[in-house]
Amino acid sequence: MSATIIDGKAIAETVRGEAADRAAALEAATGVKPGLAVVLVGNDPASEVYVRNKARLTVAAGMASFEHKLRANTSEADLIALVERLNADPLVHGILVQMPLPGHIDSDRVVLAIDPAKDVDGLTPANAGRLVLGRGGLVPCTPQGCIILAKHALGPDLAGKEALVIGRSILVGKPVALLLQAESCTVTMAHSKTHDLAGHCRRADILVAAVGRPEMVKGDWIKPGAVVIDVGINRIAQEGGKTRLVGDVAYEEAREVAGAITPVPGGVGPMTIACLLQNTVTAAEAQVRPGA
Ligand code: NDP
């Protein structure tokens, strides 16, 4: 039997709608419109598309969007000075510095400069620490999206499920594993040194692949009925010089075995911006009504 396809596009639309409702309620109650500042250094075409989409969807959700486009040769000091101005700007509740940054800039130092209260990407050590300690804070967007999608497939209670996360990056793998642990899953984290990855996969009720290797997870690695969340975005060449996006999971094989699966594109991808908008409202609410 073929798997249920988890429609990330539709679920993301619902999440953006919820963010818009909360933004409107905050503005009606306090007069404050949540604001998101996005900083782009250089003109990487993929990053420019992301930033444009973020701005468009921020405005569509009734929030203020502030775009800062800096030249590729901007110094680290000038970028940090901008971040500090945004930290102090009462119209800005969320700050996102688009990664990757040009090689001459130390991205760790830039992230450290962001006020954790406005860190809507959830990347500052303060927010990462809160996630480890289970003390709230702003959670990275793509991992949050993975959990929402898993709950769509399995219902709100993930307790006791065997979860395997392939990948341990700070941006995706680690926070996904921590969030699944917070949901009382039994979590295994796999990485490039893991032995018998296929064996680990075959035990997983929830399998999250965040590797960056096209179609690495094969259909016969998947436990029948498992929920497969494919974070990978890989562009592969096709005949005739064209390219196509694929995930880290061999989708056609996997959908014959899995219970539910996210497609690429249209699965995890759209959730990232939706969760960014949610984080922006959460940050604005906390800044406008501290302790509420
Ligand atoms: P990283 O390159 O930072 O991390 C990749 C992880 O995969 C590492 O932990 C690495 O292990 C592990 N890995 C590499 N090879 C293997 C292997 N053969 N077997 C098992 N594990 C392996 O990538 P990211 O976490 O940033 O991104 C992962 C993927 O998700 C990419 O395709 C990226 O494009 C996509 N992505 C999608 C987003 C979305 O919105 N949908 C957002 C962010 C990322 P080790 O630690 O040992 O090196």
From TrEMBL:
Domain Tetrahydrofolate dehydrogenase/cyclohydrolase NAD(P)-binding, residue spans: 140-287
Keyword terms, alphabetized: Amino-acid biosynthesis, Histidine biosynthesis, Hydrolase, Methionine biosynthesis, Multifunctional enzyme, NADP, One-carbon metabolism, Oxidoreductase, Purine biosynthesis
Gene3D superfamilies associated with the record: Leucine Dehydrogenase, chain A, domain 1, NAD(P)-binding Rossmann-like Domain
Domain Tetrahydrofolate dehydrogenase/cyclohydrolase catalytic, residue spans: 6-121
GO MF terms, alphabetically ordered: methenyltetrahydrofolate cyclohydrolase activity; methylenetetrahydrofolate dehydrogenase (NADP+) activity
CDD domains: NAD_bind_m-THF_DH_Cyclohyd
GO biological process, one term: purine nucleotide biosynthetic process
Catalyzed chemical reaction(s): (6R)-5,10-methenyltetrahydrofolate + H2O = (6R)-10-formyltetrahydrofolate + H(+); (6R)-5,10-methylene-5,6,7,8-tetrahydrofolate + NADP(+) = (6R)-5,10-methenyltetrahydrofolate + NADPH
Pathway in which this enzyme or protein is active: One-carbon metabolism; tetrahydrofolate interconversion
Residues that, per the record, bind NADP(+): 167-169, 233
A single GO cellular-component term on record: cytosol
EC assignment: 1.5.1.5, 3.5.4.9
SUPFAM superfamilies found in the cross-reference section: Aminoacid dehydrogenase-like, N-terminal domain, NAD(P)-binding Rossmann-fold domains
Pfam families found in the cross-reference section: THF_DHG_CYH, THF_DHG_CYH_C
Self-association state and partner proteins as the record states: Homodimer.
NCBIfam families membership: PRK14186.1 (NF010783), PRK14188.1 (NF010785)
Protein family according to the UniProt entry: Belongs to the tetrahydrofolate dehydrogenase/cyclohydrolase family.
HAMAP family associated with the record: THF_DHG_CYH
Protein's job: Catalyzes the oxidation of 5,10-methylenetetrahydrofolate to 5,10-methenyltetrahydrofolate and then the hydrolysis of 5,10-methenyltetrahydrofolate to 10-formyltetrahydrofolate.
Protein name per Swiss-Prot or TrEMBL: Bifunctional protein FolD
Organism of origin: Agaricicola taiwanensis
Gene expressing this chain: folD
